[in-house]
# Entry
Amino acid sequence: MGDYIMEYLNCSTKLILKLHNHVLPRADRMASTWEKRLNKTNVGMIFSLSGKPSYQKWNYLRECSILSLYPQGDLINSLRFIVPFTIITNYLKELIRREGPKDAVSLSQLFNSLIDSVDVSHTSEDYYLYHPYINDNGYLQALTEECRRQILKNNNFALIAGSIKKYAKLYSDLQFFKFISEPYRKEMIHTWSKKYNMGSADPLSFEYFVAADSIFGIVALFACSLSREITSDEINKICEVYFPWICGLQKLLENYLNAQEDIGNSTYNPTNYYKNLKICEERISFFAQKSLELCETLKHPDFHRGVVEYLLWMYLSDPRALAGINKLASFNIIKNAELKGKLNYNLCKLFRMTGKIS
# Structure
């Protein structure tokens, strides 16, 4: 009966159901192994202040795991990379949040772990060189080594090596900007965008910064490269679609939900650079429309379109998307993206209520 019903569902609905029924249970089991290891360290004791496991609070795992369903790909080996890689990202983010802002050198040293995780030519180093009081019993090093192990097993890694290293370096380099006070931050972001030759007429300069602050493209490249049918031409097209468009959409949606809270605690949030909520809504809509349009240029357009639709439904089913004036903006984003199927919206709300999405 289940297979019969699945035949009549659209691609994004099928992806969402597969993600939550088959993928996330596997991803959670893998993540819980790392959670147990973390809890044995003095860092883990700090992180476990709430009753919920860290991997369930850190949404990158929930967002990125859908990419493991790439057609003709390898679900298990995708997750073996996705789980430790997303944990590294979330772990560093949480560590810095708890430790407080640091200088560029110490932050760079920490984020070398993320660069090393996608570059086996690098020699591992002491990531806590400027944080000698942190003792994680080799936790961060082990996460990095697990990612490198999966890269060495990937026969197609040469096709994505240059791009994945580039995006990891961009992501790592820009973390320091989040801790610079305004107005210097905006000026430095503009300089950073020019340095990396990101002066295209479409996204605003700080929107390139937003796109580079997403790991979604890195994970997409790895998951797609596990397909035996992947080609260098297709990899190049995937790069053009995911960066800056889908990566930018993912990060704009995340920041859109956090905007009010971040204003209250003076946290960096790029959506606050827009003059008003209407402009923010229009730019998110533009990124959504552009992402959906460019998905048609890829080999498996239904899959990539389903991924984009999942991001929209997942974020816009969040209670914050429906609070106050956000409700109208969220409705307009859905309308402008021409999303159909209230079932997907209700599924994401259901999964949020049952704790499958935080």
In short: The two ends are 30 Å apart (CA to CA). Residues 4-8 have pLDDT under 50 and may be disordered. The longest helix spans residues 232-264.
